[in-house]
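Question (not urgent): is this output format expected?
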Amino acid sequence: MVAKFAHFRPKPLILSITTLVGGVVITFIALEFRHYLCEIDELARRMQLEAMAWTYLTGFVVAAWLGVAATFSQTIAHWAFKPDVLLMVPYLFFLLEPVRSGFLYYLSRRY
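Got this back:
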């Protein structure tokens, strides 16, 4: 992502390696989070899973509304189909982490 914003054009081999490393890191994080969920007690697991469900629904609704906005806006419609932007879509999931944290805070107050 830094290379995209700095207008640095890496060689195809380096681009492939960095893409592969990103996929491996995200997979490792997901596996470790799964191990964490298996080790915590029932209430904490329920709170984590409920927060993930609400975060998923929030991301889904936001993506749907961006799709609706894209049909009415030439700027968003042209922005969404650029190959550089499409490569950054998986990293946009990290923007949902504060949403999950907010839901966890709310759930911790509720339980």
